[in-house]
Amino acid sequence: MFKSFQAQLIMFVLMLLALAQLGTALAVLSSLKEDNYRQGVNSIDVSRNVFDLFLEARAEQLTKGVEILTSDFGFKQAVATRETGTIRSVLQNHGARISADVSILVSPGGELITATQAVNVSGTISELVFAARRSGGSSISTMIALDNRAYQLVLVPVKAPNVIAWVGMAFLLDQTLAEQIKNVTGLDISFVHEIESTHTLDGVSTLPEYEKNTLFDGIGNINSILQLPMFSTDEKYLSLGVDLGVTDQWGVIHLPYGPWIESYNSTRNQLVLIFTGALALAFLFGVVLARNMTKPIGRLVDYATLIGLGADNEKVKAPEISGEFGVLSNTMKTMQDAIINREEELTYRASRDQLTGLFNQSAVELYLSEALPKVQGGLILINIRHFKNINNMLGFDVGNVLLSTVAERLKAWGGDADMIARLNGDKFLLIFERNISEQDCADLKCFFCEEFEVEEGSNIRLDISIAVLPFEHATADVNSAMRRLDIVADKAREESNLCVFYEIGQDENHRRQLTIIRDLPAALESGQLFVVYQPKVGLAGNDCHEAEALIRWVHPELGFVPPDEFISILEHAGSIQLLTKWVLNTVLSQLSRWWSDGHEIRVAVNLSAHDLVDEALPTMVAQALKANHLPERALALEVTESAVMKDRVKVTNVLKALQKMGVHLAIDDFGTGQSSLSYLRELPVNEVKIDRAFIQFIDTNKGDEFITKATIDLSHSLGFQVTAEGAENAEGVALLGLYHCDKIQGYFFSKPLLAEDFFKWRENFHKI
Question: What is the pTM of this model?
Answer without folding.
Answer: 0.48
